């Protein structure tokens, strides 16, 4: 069944969702205890925010002849981008209209409704003056009820039930089974052609399952950076105003300070669940966008699918990125730009508009990636002007004006937002890199990836894990140079596009490994993940190139030439490598062997013998108790993982303990791990941005003696009043 989304149908959908959301908000305001209307408001509110603004913009730009995955990618991207712009504008213009709290329910609902109505009226206006192309979306009922679709939906539901059992009963058995089932089913999907028509869906639902595997391990916010993001979002909701002049890095980004309050007010979903549910959902759509990108580049569904699996099964994807929601949004727009660059179905003017919009949205989403994206734009622009390439690719995607507008916007935005803190930080980082090139190049203490590689690793299994990553990078380098050689030899546009899209990512990897202080800007794991977004295809091309060479030697020796004999064995080897890689990334290998490392956190959450920034109910209650009763003159002291807990509770962290107990009076906060193991976590600096964390012993009997008694004790945490003679 092919559904044509005429402007009339889009208008009906827009008005229906809008009226439904407003009605449900009204009903929940009258009687907030009715659960069905709460759930309906959450569901319809999320649909309304993710679909309606973007659908209206896509219709206006006449973007047609897209696959369902591409259409959803553009609709969701334009929706969340326009919501950020809407929030920024109402923050700036609100005071001129005597709106004291622009980021609150009525102003946000009114501004979003107004924005959608303007877009709808504009669509109708241009439908009379210019013939707008209708959007066509092919939806077949037999595809929806297909066994492949139902199988992966069952796996997703099974994983959610496994998460529930782990959180409620500390039983990880179903999650272990989930990892094993997913490995088997993904392997079958790569080997059996019948799955190939559903690869985009499989990538999406598998990505969402894997992301929820870690994001839902606690009802509370967990991790590092996400705690700061949560704090600034809560502050915006509490104040009804985005106070963009507060000098905090996380306060400079509407992808958190604006998006979270909008979803909170319109859908009624709690902010912490917005971080845990909505952001992984958006990021999973981005992963399907990566598959579409690779499919365009390779024209081979299996290669595109396997290349995307390398991305979504890495711990950087579902472990690190789940604690960096602002970067998830920025990467969504990066994938949107990459897809648009090789999109051939729209006019050049509309293509430029899309590239410009996604670039601005990216800049609003993450300060680090905003500056790094300049490398992408400059690399793409330079490649387009190389004579041999201009003959293959006559259409130029990036004009000087697009790059100039982007550079001007980034400088203007970050030199004014958050009191210019980000801009100053970036200028200092560039200066450090420039000086380091002459003084400290290839020096591990200032080149973070070299520090990580040379760092003494935990037990042998982790050494194997490190070796797997190094092997992957080896495959990537081989695949990249293999593609370059093929391009020089054949001068094919297909090889050019692969290189064109991915060269900025290769440069990021090269600069991270060689330039002092470069990787520190975003941390090595994040740089590595960003580079993977557009370069994962080279993993597989590297394996194929090596396999082809080995099999050609074998055929020459045996005298039985067969050009394609290497393909199936290579696919099977790739699957074995990939699934072994996922077993390590999921933490299952460590869990089975009794080793407790950060990658195992999804399986051993709340294990009191393992230290990680995940907090139980007793610790949360204790932190709230102390926040409400502490003296304003005294500091709160806690170790490396516990001091950031207070950011969740009160918006600002406590004071981090060093290697000794506090030198001044205050409150000493101990969590479950501290009490059970009589240890606190501290750290040594290996290189700038790279730390060696370790535990040191504390004597609880001495603490009780020195402070006479614990002020608060709930068996899961303890608070001492720490008194020093010097104050």
Topology of this protein?
Elements: E1 2-5, H1 7-30, H2 35-61, H3 68-93, H4 105-129, E2 135-138, H5 141-144, H6 147-169, H7 173-191, H8 199-215, H9 225-239, H10 254-257, H11 259-267, H12 271-298, H13 301-312, H14 315-320, H15 325-341, H16 348-365, H17 367-384, H18 387-392, H19 400-416, H20 421-439, H21 448-454, H22 460-490, H23 493-514, H24 524-535, H25 537-558, H26 567-585, H27 588-592, H28 617-629, E3 635-638, H29 645-650, E4 655-656, E5 666-670, H30 672-677, E6 679-687, E7 690-697, H31 700-707, E8 710-713, E9 718-722
Parallel strand pairs: 3-4, 3-5
Antiparallel strand pairs: 1-2, 5-9, 6-7, 8-9
Helix pairs in contact: 1-2, 1-4, 2-3, 2-4, 3-4, 3-12, 3-16, 6-7, 6-8, 7-8, 7-26, 8-12, 8-13, 12-13, 12-15, 13-25, 15-16, 16-17, 16-19, 17-19, 17-23, 19-20, 22-23, 22-25, 23-24, 25-26
Q: Which descriptor suits the 3D outline?
A: globular
User: Which consecutive residue ranges, at least 5 long each, have pLDDT under 50?
Assistant: none
Radius of gyration using CA atoms only: 26 Å
What's the number of extended β-strand segments?
A: 9
- Count structural domains: 3
Number of helices: 31
Mean pLDDT, rounded to whole units? Answer: 85
Helix content range: 55-70%
Which strand-content bin applies to the residues? 5-15%
Reading side by side through the largest sheet, how are the strands ordered?
4-3-5-9-8
Structural class: alpha/beta
Largest sheet: 5 strands, mixed
Distance between the termini: 76 Å
